[in-house]
């Protein structure tokens, strides 16, 4: 068991980590891994450098987003799933990414994630603010954080 989620739910993450070693699990898949919110994605969301080739993986289904610079490299945690090192963004980085990609995943998902990480203390406000600056969404996230604090 990893993070309270049954191992078989995370096996897809391990498969992707083996098939696409430079990927980082992000957005909805990272929310599910960290048990934030109610999202249960049908695809595994991964972040890749914008210059990386698109992965040729048939299963599990992938959703690729492109990151660059510190937005790609910051906030990565390594977790072992089924004997495989899987790179997954931290809860604070995941929430910041949700605000960055709010047009793709929905503002309601980003707000639910923000509410839950603050309520459950899965990250500090300072971590969240640092990652919001890295993702360049600090002006977007500020009013929501002020309303919740």
Percent range of helical residues: 40-55%
What is Rg?
14 Å
Quickly count the domains. 1
* Overall form: globular
As residue ranges, the low-confidence spans are none
Order of helices and strands: HEHEEHEEHHHHH
Measured distance between first and last alpha carbons? 33 Å
Overall pLDDT: 91
Largest sheet: 3 strands, mixed
The number of strands is 5
Oligomer: single chain
Secondary-structure content class: alpha+beta
Physical arrangement of strands within the biggest beta sheet: 1-2-3
DSSP summary: helix tally: 8
Question: What percent strand?
Answer: 15-25%
Tell me what you see in this structure.
It is a single chain. By secondary structure, this protein is α+β, with helices and mostly antiparallel strands. It has one domain. Strand 4 and strand 5 form a beta hairpin. It has 8 helices and 5 strands, in the order H-E-H-E-E-H-E-E-H-H-H-H-H. Helices cover 50% and strands 17% of the residues. Helix 2 runs antiparallel to helix 4 (91-100) and helix 4 (91-100) runs antiparallel to helix 6. A 3-stranded mixed sheet has the order 1-2-3. It has helices spanning 7-19, 27-33, 69-73, 91-100, 102-105, 107-120, 125-134, 138-148; strands spanning 24-25, 44-49, 62-67, 76-81, 84-89.
